[in-house]
Protein backbone atom coordinates (compact mmCIF):
# COMPACT_ATOMS: atom_id res chain seq x y z
CA UNK A 1 0.00 0.00 0.00
CA UNK A 2 1.38 3.46 -0.87
CA UNK A 3 1.77 6.12 1.79
CA UNK A 4 -0.82 8.25 0.02
CA UNK A 5 -3.47 5.56 -0.08
CA UNK A 6 -2.74 4.74 3.55
CA UNK A 7 -3.34 8.38 4.52
CA UNK A 8 -6.53 8.64 2.49
CA UNK A 9 -7.85 5.41 3.99
CA UNK A 10 -7.05 6.69 7.47
CA UNK A 11 -8.77 9.99 6.69
CA UNK A 12 -11.78 8.12 5.36
CA UNK A 13 -11.82 6.09 8.56
CA UNK A 14 -11.91 9.25 10.64
CA UNK A 15 -14.74 10.66 8.55
CA UNK A 16 -16.65 7.38 8.76
CA UNK A 17 -16.49 7.36 12.55
CA UNK A 18 -17.52 11.03 12.63
CA UNK A 19 -20.48 10.41 10.34
CA UNK A 20 -21.57 7.40 12.34
CA UNK A 21 -21.55 9.43 15.55
CA UNK A 22 -23.57 12.15 13.85
CA UNK A 23 -26.02 9.62 12.45
CA UNK A 24 -26.53 8.12 15.91
CA UNK A 25 -27.10 11.58 17.40
CA UNK A 26 -29.65 12.39 14.71
CA UNK A 27 -31.40 9.08 15.19
CA UNK A 28 -31.68 9.78 18.90
CA UNK A 29 -33.09 13.25 18.24
CA UNK A 30 -35.74 12.32 15.67
CA UNK A 31 -38.69 14.67 16.01
CA UNK A 32 -41.52 12.58 14.59
CA UNK A 33 -42.06 9.94 17.24
CA UNK A 34 -44.32 7.10 16.19
CA UNK A 35 -44.36 3.33 16.22
CA UNK A 36 -44.85 0.96 13.31
CA UNK A 37 -46.94 -1.92 14.58
CA UNK A 38 -46.81 -5.37 12.98
CA UNK A 39 -48.83 -8.40 14.07
CA UNK A 40 -46.52 -11.39 14.46
CA UNK A 41 -49.24 -13.83 15.62
CA UNK A 42 -52.84 -13.38 16.89
CA UNK A 43 -51.48 -12.40 20.29
CA UNK A 44 -47.96 -11.10 19.74
CA UNK A 45 -47.10 -7.87 17.94
CA UNK A 46 -43.87 -5.99 17.35
CA UNK A 47 -43.72 -2.21 17.70
CA UNK A 48 -40.79 -0.41 16.09
CA UNK A 49 -40.12 3.08 17.36
CA UNK A 50 -36.82 4.90 17.84
CA UNK A 51 -34.95 2.73 20.34
CA UNK A 52 -35.10 -1.01 20.88
CA UNK A 53 -37.88 -3.06 19.34
CA UNK A 54 -40.92 -3.49 21.58
CA UNK A 55 -43.00 -6.69 21.68
CA UNK A 56 -46.48 -6.98 23.16
CA UNK A 57 -48.47 -10.03 24.22
CA UNK A 58 -52.16 -9.18 24.28
CA UNK A 59 -55.38 -10.87 25.34
CA UNK A 60 -58.13 -11.11 27.97
CA UNK A 61 -55.73 -10.77 30.88
CA UNK A 62 -54.13 -7.59 29.61
CA UNK A 63 -50.89 -6.56 27.97
CA UNK A 64 -47.36 -7.78 28.62
CA UNK A 65 -44.74 -5.55 27.00
CA UNK A 66 -41.09 -6.34 26.32
CA UNK A 67 -38.99 -3.15 26.53
CA UNK A 68 -40.43 0.35 26.36
CA UNK A 69 -38.11 2.60 24.28
CA UNK A 70 -36.88 6.12 25.12
CA UNK A 71 -38.76 8.48 27.42
CA UNK A 72 -39.64 10.86 24.59
CA UNK A 73 -41.33 7.94 22.80
CA UNK A 74 -43.79 7.40 25.66
CA UNK A 75 -46.66 9.41 24.13
CA UNK A 76 -46.24 7.48 20.86
CA UNK A 77 -46.09 4.18 22.76
CA UNK A 78 -49.34 5.04 24.56
CA UNK A 79 -50.93 5.58 21.15
CA UNK A 80 -49.48 2.33 19.81
CA UNK A 81 -51.02 0.42 22.75
CA UNK A 82 -54.53 1.75 22.02
CA UNK A 83 -55.54 -1.03 19.58
CA UNK A 84 -54.71 -3.59 22.30
CA UNK A 85 -56.89 -1.92 24.93
CA UNK A 86 -54.66 0.98 25.94
CA UNK A 87 -52.05 1.48 28.63
CA UNK A 88 -54.57 0.75 31.40
CA UNK A 89 -54.42 -2.88 30.31
CA UNK A 90 -50.65 -2.98 30.73
CA UNK A 91 -49.81 -5.53 33.44
CA UNK A 92 -46.15 -6.45 32.99
CA UNK A 93 -43.10 -4.85 31.41
CA UNK A 94 -40.02 -6.97 30.86
CA UNK A 95 -36.73 -5.07 30.46
CA UNK A 96 -34.30 -7.13 28.36
CA UNK A 97 -31.40 -5.04 29.81
CA UNK A 98 -30.78 -1.63 31.40
CA UNK A 99 -29.95 0.57 28.37
CA UNK A 100 -32.16 3.65 28.10
CA UNK A 101 -33.41 2.89 24.59
CA UNK A 102 -35.10 -0.19 26.14
CA UNK A 103 -36.08 1.07 29.62
CA UNK A 104 -36.83 4.81 29.72
CA UNK A 105 -40.53 4.10 29.19
CA UNK A 106 -40.39 2.65 32.74
CA UNK A 107 -40.48 6.24 34.01
CA UNK A 108 -44.10 6.52 32.90
CA UNK A 109 -45.43 2.98 32.54
CA UNK A 110 -43.82 1.86 35.81
CA UNK A 111 -46.42 3.89 37.72
CA UNK A 112 -48.97 1.17 36.99
CA UNK A 113 -47.32 -1.91 35.48
CA UNK A 114 -45.00 -4.38 37.22
CA UNK A 115 -41.49 -4.34 35.81
CA UNK A 116 -39.60 -7.61 35.45
CA UNK A 117 -35.86 -7.93 34.74
CA UNK A 118 -32.67 -9.72 35.65
CA UNK A 119 -31.22 -8.86 39.09
CA UNK A 120 -28.35 -6.90 37.51
CA UNK A 121 -30.73 -4.57 35.62
CA UNK A 122 -32.20 -3.34 38.90
CA UNK A 123 -28.72 -3.09 40.40
CA UNK A 124 -27.51 -0.90 37.54
CA UNK A 125 -30.61 1.31 37.40
CA UNK A 126 -30.24 2.04 41.13
CA UNK A 127 -27.08 4.04 40.41
CA UNK A 128 -25.71 6.32 37.70
CA UNK A 129 -24.49 4.44 34.60
CA UNK A 130 -22.29 5.45 31.72
CA UNK A 131 -21.63 4.26 28.18
CA UNK A 132 -18.43 6.05 27.21
CA UNK A 133 -18.58 5.16 23.51
CA UNK A 134 -21.79 7.22 23.09
CA UNK A 135 -20.94 9.72 25.87
CA UNK A 136 -24.18 8.59 27.48
CA UNK A 137 -24.82 8.97 31.21
CA UNK A 138 -27.96 7.52 32.81
CA UNK A 139 -29.09 8.91 36.15
CA UNK A 140 -30.50 6.55 38.81
CA UNK A 141 -34.13 5.58 38.14
CA UNK A 142 -36.81 6.46 40.72
CA UNK A 143 -38.35 3.57 42.67
CA UNK A 144 -41.47 3.22 40.54
CA UNK A 145 -39.36 2.88 37.36
CA UNK A 146 -37.15 0.09 38.72
CA UNK A 147 -37.80 -3.59 38.13
CA UNK A 148 -39.78 -4.80 41.17
CA UNK A 149 -39.67 -8.45 40.15
CA UNK A 150 -36.12 -9.62 39.51
CA UNK A 151 -34.68 -13.04 38.84
CA UNK A 152 -31.32 -14.75 38.56
CA UNK A 153 -31.54 -17.48 35.91
CA UNK A 154 -35.03 -18.07 34.56
CA UNK A 155 -38.55 -16.90 35.25
CA UNK A 156 -41.84 -18.00 33.69
CA UNK A 157 -44.92 -15.77 33.42
CA UNK A 158 -48.28 -17.31 32.55
CA UNK A 159 -50.67 -14.91 30.89
CA UNK A 160 -53.30 -14.91 28.14
CA UNK A 161 -52.84 -18.66 27.69
CA UNK A 162 -49.20 -18.10 26.84
CA UNK A 163 -46.10 -19.38 28.61
CA UNK A 164 -43.56 -16.56 28.68
CA UNK A 165 -40.08 -17.81 29.48
CA UNK A 166 -37.62 -15.09 30.55
CA UNK A 167 -34.07 -16.41 30.46
CA UNK A 168 -30.80 -14.81 31.52
CA UNK A 169 -27.84 -15.38 29.24
CA UNK A 170 -24.78 -13.96 30.99
CA UNK A 171 -22.21 -11.48 29.83
CA UNK A 172 -23.19 -10.93 26.17
CA UNK A 173 -24.50 -7.43 25.39
CA UNK A 174 -24.43 -6.39 29.09
CA UNK A 175 -24.29 -8.28 32.39
CA UNK A 176 -28.09 -8.42 32.74
CA UNK A 177 -29.44 -9.66 29.41
CA UNK A 178 -32.73 -11.52 29.11
CA UNK A 179 -34.30 -13.20 26.12
CA UNK A 180 -38.09 -13.56 26.22
CA UNK A 181 -39.52 -16.69 24.62
CA UNK A 182 -43.27 -16.84 23.95
CA UNK A 183 -43.37 -20.65 23.87
CA UNK A 184 -46.84 -21.30 22.39
CA UNK A 185 -46.57 -18.54 19.81
CA UNK A 186 -43.00 -19.68 19.01
CA UNK A 187 -41.72 -16.09 19.06
CA UNK A 188 -38.55 -14.97 20.80
CA UNK A 189 -37.45 -11.42 21.66
CA UNK A 190 -33.65 -11.39 21.74
CA UNK A 191 -33.06 -8.01 23.37
CA UNK A 192 -29.74 -6.60 22.20
CA UNK A 193 -28.14 -10.01 21.83
CA UNK A 194 -29.25 -9.57 18.22
CA UNK A 195 -28.96 -6.60 15.87
CA UNK A 196 -30.46 -7.80 12.60
CA UNK A 197 -28.34 -6.87 9.60
CA UNK A 198 -25.65 -4.65 11.07
CA UNK A 199 -22.75 -4.67 13.51
CA UNK A 200 -24.10 -4.62 17.08
CA UNK A 201 -23.15 -2.53 20.05
CA UNK A 202 -21.60 -4.70 22.76
CA UNK A 203 -21.32 -2.91 26.10
CA UNK A 204 -17.90 -4.27 27.05
CA UNK A 205 -17.53 -1.52 29.65
CA UNK A 206 -20.65 -2.80 31.46
CA UNK A 207 -20.17 -6.56 31.42
CA UNK A 208 -20.63 -7.38 27.73
CA UNK A 209 -18.37 -9.61 25.63
CA UNK A 210 -18.37 -10.36 21.91
CA UNK A 211 -17.38 -14.01 22.36
CA UNK A 212 -19.98 -14.56 25.10
CA UNK A 213 -22.60 -12.86 22.94
CA UNK A 214 -21.76 -15.35 20.20
CA UNK A 215 -22.04 -18.26 22.67
CA UNK A 216 -25.34 -16.95 23.98
CA UNK A 217 -26.77 -16.65 20.49
CA UNK A 218 -25.63 -20.23 19.83
CA UNK A 219 -27.52 -21.30 22.97
CA UNK A 220 -30.67 -19.61 21.67
CA UNK A 221 -30.22 -21.28 18.26
CA UNK A 222 -30.42 -24.61 20.11
CA UNK A 223 -33.79 -23.64 21.64
CA UNK A 224 -35.61 -22.47 18.51
CA UNK A 225 -36.62 -24.02 15.18
CA UNK A 226 -37.04 -22.93 11.56
CA UNK A 227 -40.56 -21.66 12.28
CA UNK A 228 -39.57 -19.48 15.23
CA UNK A 229 -40.10 -15.78 14.67
CA UNK A 230 -37.14 -13.88 16.03
CA UNK A 231 -37.53 -10.28 17.19
CA UNK A 232 -34.12 -8.59 17.34
CA UNK A 233 -33.27 -5.75 19.72
CA UNK A 234 -32.75 -3.59 16.66
CA UNK A 235 -33.61 -4.10 13.00
CA UNK A 236 -36.45 -5.89 11.21
CA UNK A 237 -38.24 -9.07 12.33
CA UNK A 238 -36.18 -12.14 11.64
CA UNK A 239 -35.76 -15.92 11.76
CA UNK A 240 -33.36 -18.68 12.73
CA UNK A 241 -31.36 -18.58 9.47
CA UNK A 242 -30.65 -14.84 9.82
CA UNK A 243 -29.82 -15.22 13.50
CA UNK A 244 -27.35 -17.95 12.52
CA UNK A 245 -25.74 -15.59 10.00
CA UNK A 246 -25.43 -12.97 12.76
CA UNK A 247 -23.73 -15.49 15.06
CA UNK A 248 -21.36 -16.47 12.24
CA UNK A 249 -20.49 -12.78 11.72
CA UNK A 250 -19.71 -12.40 15.44
CA UNK A 251 -17.42 -15.44 15.30
CA UNK A 252 -15.82 -14.53 11.99
CA UNK A 253 -15.03 -10.93 12.80
CA UNK A 254 -13.77 -11.91 16.26
CA UNK A 255 -11.36 -14.39 14.63
CA UNK A 256 -10.13 -11.79 12.15
CA UNK A 257 -9.45 -9.21 14.86
CA UNK A 258 -7.71 -11.87 16.95
CA UNK A 259 -5.51 -12.77 13.98
CA UNK A 260 -4.54 -9.14 13.43
CA UNK A 261 -3.69 -8.82 17.12
CA UNK A 262 -1.59 -11.98 16.87
CA UNK A 263 0.41 -10.26 14.12
CA UNK A 264 1.19 -7.49 16.60
CA UNK A 265 -1.07 -4.84 15.05
CA UNK A 266 -2.43 -2.07 17.28
CA UNK A 267 -6.03 -0.81 17.11
CA UNK A 268 -5.28 2.00 14.65
CA UNK A 269 -3.47 -0.39 12.33
CA UNK A 270 -6.32 -2.91 12.52
CA UNK A 271 -8.87 -0.21 11.73
CA UNK A 272 -6.87 0.87 8.67
CA UNK A 273 -6.39 -2.74 7.58
CA UNK A 274 -10.10 -3.49 8.04
CA UNK A 275 -12.01 -6.75 8.01
CA UNK A 276 -12.35 -9.08 5.04
CA UNK A 277 -14.99 -8.43 2.39
CA UNK A 278 -17.11 -11.24 3.88
CA UNK A 279 -18.69 -8.79 6.32
CA UNK A 280 -19.36 -5.86 3.99
CA UNK A 281 -23.14 -6.39 4.22
CA UNK A 282 -23.03 -5.68 7.96
CA UNK A 283 -21.45 -2.23 7.63
CA UNK A 284 -24.48 -0.27 6.45
CA UNK A 285 -26.22 0.30 9.76
CA UNK A 286 -25.62 1.47 13.24
CA UNK A 287 -21.84 1.14 13.64
CA UNK A 288 -19.02 1.47 11.11
CA UNK A 289 -16.61 -1.38 10.56
CA UNK A 290 -13.90 0.60 12.36
CA UNK A 291 -16.01 1.14 15.47
CA UNK A 292 -16.89 -2.55 15.42
CA UNK A 293 -13.20 -3.50 15.23
CA UNK A 294 -12.66 -1.27 18.28
CA UNK A 295 -15.43 -3.02 20.21
CA UNK A 296 -14.13 -6.50 19.33
CA UNK A 297 -10.59 -5.46 20.26
CA UNK A 298 -11.65 -4.07 23.65
CA UNK A 299 -13.68 -7.24 24.25
CA UNK A 300 -10.66 -9.46 23.50
CA UNK A 301 -8.59 -7.35 25.91
CA UNK A 302 -11.14 -7.97 28.67
CA UNK A 303 -11.80 -11.69 27.99
ZN1 LIG B 1 -28.58 -2.21 24.47
Number of strand elements = 14
Listed once per kind, the bound small molecules are: zinc ion
User: How many domain units?
Assistant: 1
User: Can you tell me the residue ranges where pLDDT is under 50 for at least 5 consecutive residues?
Assistant: 1-30
Q: Give the termini separation.
A: 33 Å
Number of helices, counting only DSSP H or I runs of 4 residues or more: 9
User: Strand share of the residues?
Assistant: 15-25%
Query: What would the principal axes of the Cα set say about the shape?
Result: globular
Largest sheet: 7 strands, mixed
Overall average residue pLDDT: 91
Please identify the structural class as seen in this structure. alpha/beta
Q: H/E series, N to C? A: HEEEEHEHHEHEEEEEEEHEHHH
Cα radius of gyration in angstroms: 19 Å
Helix content: 25-40%
Strand order of the largest sheet: 1-2-3-4-5-6-9
Level-1 CATH class name: Alpha Beta
Task: Give structural notes.
By secondary structure, this protein is α/β, with parallel strands linked by helices. The chain has one domain: Metallo-beta-lactamase, Chain A. 35% of the residues lie in helices and 20% in strands. The protein has nine helices and 14 strands. The strands form three sheets. A seven-stranded mixed β-sheet has the order 1-2-3-4-5-6-9. A five-stranded mixed β-sheet has the order 10-11-12-13-14, with no helix packed on it. The chain has a two-stranded antiparallel sheet with strand order 7-8. A hairpin with a 4-residue loop joins β1 and β2. The N terminus is likely disordered. Bound molecules: zinc ion. The site of zinc ion has 4 residues, from loops.
Amino acid sequence: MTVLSRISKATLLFVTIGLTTTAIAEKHNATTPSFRSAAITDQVSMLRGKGGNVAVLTGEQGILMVDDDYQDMTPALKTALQPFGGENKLTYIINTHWHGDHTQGNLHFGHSAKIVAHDNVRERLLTSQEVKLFKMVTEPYPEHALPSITYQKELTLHMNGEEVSVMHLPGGHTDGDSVVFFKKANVIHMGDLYFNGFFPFVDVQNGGSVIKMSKNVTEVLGMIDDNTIVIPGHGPVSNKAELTAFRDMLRGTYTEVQEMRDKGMNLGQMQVEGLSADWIDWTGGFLSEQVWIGIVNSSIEKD
